[in-house]
């Protein structure tokens, strides 16, 4: 059974739907293995997002990225296609929330648990100092100063083991000195003779699993007494969104999509760990790109007007990369 045929979607009206989706590798592709920080929206995806968001109750993007980074990607298409409507951008792991159809002055911060606003800003400033210092020591790094946190993206020649070891030792030393208040998350992978990777630095307690229910509660009443929630993501951070929402939403009114080599619909949040990490195969070119699959699914939501169900009969006979497991 394909996700387009999931019985959960039958009879659901578009204005009952709240979509909550990750940005990188869920809405946006990364097509260049040598520039893993770049994640633009394709024009077709921007148009699809605009059409979908205009028909449903609310589209929420929850991303670890900084706000400015995502706004820049959206802004690349605004002059030609108009501003995307009815979208909430929850950046910095959901802690900085901006409804894009309202003035920037109305954005708000969801506080980090057990962390005062003063401590949050102090941790952010410390992270920015770390990011700037690493950029000075390693000029070829990409420094990412986010509004409430930060990161560095790196690539080293795999033959230069001394430089790789020196960088790792430097990061380890900084982490040891700041671990009481700052959380470090690092991932790296080989690519074409180079070691690619990133180091995310966030104030401790910053988490999509904490912020997502708070943002959802802001919109659930607007979707009526029986909202339907679709949550999409590709990584363990995104699965925390699903795990946090699962107790709040009846199983028949939620659809959790693990975006991976095959788009997987999961009935239970804990089953989402069957989804594969995109970075392991995003550049293989086998079949349709997982992000394309995700957008193909989203285009089935609210296909005509609010009186129609989400399902369009045109999708019922689709085969190939769209054939996926749907529990429920």
What is the secondary structure topology, with strand pairs?
Blueprint: E1 17-21, H1 43-55, E2 58-62, H2 67-81, E3 87-91, E4 96-99, E5 108-109, H3 117-137, E6 142-145, E7 150-157, H4 161-178, E8 182-191, E9 194-203, H5 208-219, E10 228-233, H6 236-245, E11 254-258, E12 264-266, H7 290-298
Parallel strand pairs: 1-2, 1-10, 2-3, 10-11
Antiparallel strand pairs: 3-4, 4-5, 6-7, 7-9, 8-9, 11-12
Helix pairs in contact: 5-6
Task: Give a verbal description of the structure.
By secondary structure, the chain is an alpha/beta fold. The chain has 2 domains: 3-112 and 207-322, Rossmann fold (3-Layer(aba) Sandwich); 117-203, no CATH class. 30% of the residues lie in helices and 20% in strands. The protein is built from 7 helices and 12 strands. The strands form 2 sheets. Strands 5-4-3-2-1-10-11-12 form an 8-stranded mixed β-sheet, sandwiched between helices. Strands 6-7-9-8 form a 4-stranded antiparallel β-sheet, covered by helices on one side. Strand 2 (58-62), helix 2 and strand 3 form a beta-alpha-beta unit. Helix 5 packs across helix 6. Mean pLDDT is 84; it is low at 269-286 and 304-328.
């Amino acid at each position: 059974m394909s996700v387009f045929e999931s019985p959960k979607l039958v009879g659901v009206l578009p204005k009952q739907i709240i979509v909550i989706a990750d940005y990188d590798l869920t809405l946006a592709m990364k097509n260049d293995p040598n520039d893993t920080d770049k994640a633009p929206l394709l024009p077709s995806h921007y148009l699809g997002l605009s059409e979908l968001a205009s028909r449903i109750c609310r589209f929420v993007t929850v991303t670890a990225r900084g706000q400015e980074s995502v706004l820049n990607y959206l802004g690349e298409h605004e002059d030609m296609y108009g501003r995307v409507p009815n979208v909430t951008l929850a950046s910095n792991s959901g802690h900085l929330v901006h409804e894009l159809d309202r003035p920037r002055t109305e954005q708000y911060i969801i506080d980090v648990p057990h962390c005062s606003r003063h401590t949050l800003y102090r941790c952010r400033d410390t992270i920015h100092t770390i990011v700037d210092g690493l950029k000075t020591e390693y000029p070829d790094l990409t420094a990412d100063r986010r509004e409430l946190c930060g990161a560095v993206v790196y690539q080293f020649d795999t033959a230069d083991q001394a430089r790789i070891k020196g960088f790792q030792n430097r990061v380890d030393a900084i982490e040891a000195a700041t671990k009481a208040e700052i959380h470090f998350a690092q991932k790296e992978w080989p690519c074409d003779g180079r070691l690619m990777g990133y180091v995310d630095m966030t104030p401790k307690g910053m988490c999509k699993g904490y912020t997502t229910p708070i943002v959802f509660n802001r919109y659930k009443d607007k979707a009526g007494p029986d909202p339907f929630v679709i949550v999409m993501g590709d990584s363990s951070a995104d699965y925390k969104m699903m795990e946090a929402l699962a107790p709040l939403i009846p199983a028949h009114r939620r659809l959790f999509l693990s975006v991976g080599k095959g788009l997987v619909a999961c009935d239970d949040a804990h089953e989402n760990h069957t989804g594969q990490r995109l970075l392991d195969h995003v550049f293989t070119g086998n079949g349709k790109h997982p992000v394309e699959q995700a957008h193909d699914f989203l285009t089935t939501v609210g296909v005509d007007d609010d009186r129609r169900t989400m399902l369009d009969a045109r999708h019922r006979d689709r085969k190939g990369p769209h054939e996926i497991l749907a529990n429920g």
